[in-house]
Amino acid sequence: MYDICGCEGDWTPAHFVDNTVASLRQQIGNEKVIMALSGGVDSTVAATLLHQAIGDRLFCFFIDNGLLRKNEYQEVLDSYLGMGLNIEGVDAKDRFYEALAGVSDPEQKRKIIGKLFIDLFEEESEAHPDFQWLGQGTIYPDVIESVSVHGPSVTIKSHHNVGGLPEKLKLKIVEPLRSLFKDEVRRVGKELNVSTNILNRHPFPGPGLGIRILGDITPEKVRILQEADAIYIAKLREHGLDDEVWQAGTILLPIHSVGVMGDERTYEQVIALRAVNSTDGMTAEWSHLPHEFLAEVSSEIINNVKGINRVVFDISTKPPATIEWE
Q1: Listed residue (176, 174, 175, 138) closest to 158, CA to CA
Q2: Which of 6, 46, 72, 98 is the most exposed place for a label (fewest CB within 10 A)?
Q3: Whose CA is closest to 178, among 133, 138, 135?
Q4: What's the whole-model pTM score?
Q5: Residue 293's Cα: distance from chain center in Å?
Q6: pLDDT at 31 over 70
Q7: How far apart are CA 29 and CA 54, in angstroms?
Q8: What are the tens digits of pLDDT across the range 126-155?
Q9: Across the strands, what pairs with 269?
Q10: What's the CA gap between 240 and 115, in Å, rounded?
Q11: How are the residues of the chain apportioned to helix, strand and coil, as percentages rounded to the nearest 5?
Q12: Do the beta carbons of residue 4 and residue 27 sit within 8 Å?
């Protein structure tokens, strides 16, 4: 595993870019890199650094694991093609749903998702034996939450790009952002002229909606969560609150509650809204969204998403809670 820091002394984005690009060129040489892109800041900035260093010898994949936000797969794929990256879309929804069927434990879900990502890479690497490296957008908070980096620290949760790697990976790993926090990644992205639409996107977990569905995962649960999440994010943008929130998303809870729709009694699921403000993801405060806004979102979700009859708002800080529920 190869870790690039690229900087000593005073840290600046320009210094980091220059040193990291030079280090990547030296380390990778004339070899080729494959990489998964998620549409998020981390993988995009990492890919841009690699692209600057080795050009078209970087070959990217964008995997539809069936756990993305509504319409996200095609929208993100189109945006990457517009950036000039050498990228291919892979529809693997059914494989992920099959592997995750009946699994409720959050750590097991993360491991399954991470392993299947790597399996897909290994399959592609066997079909394209001229690839020698696997690029990843791992950042420092991922590392410290997943593994003990300075003595016997506690593993908070596994990240699919840290803890899900098999011991005998056939590809060498390169992680240009492993030493950076999220705010530093955005500063590097700005230095690289990455689109503000990507730089300003809220963080999204590598396992996607798989860890925002508490309990086992089914295509129907994914549909419910996608619909509710799309309403929430659209309303944040409509009210000009998107830029005031560091990360927002919805969580499908594994409980049912009694409700009333018209003259009929219902017994349906509960959606939790999550919104936090943070700098680096290591600590976070819950966002104080206006009550009128929350009421509007709740009404819109309950009236338009079949299977939901109750919406709650999470007001937990990190720590002691984490940003994601799993």
Answers
A1: 138
A2: 98
A3: 138
A4: 0.77
A5: 26
A6: yes
A7: 8
A8: 777 788 898 999 998 777 755 544 444 344
A9: 256, 308
A10: 38
A11: 40, 20, 35
A12: yes
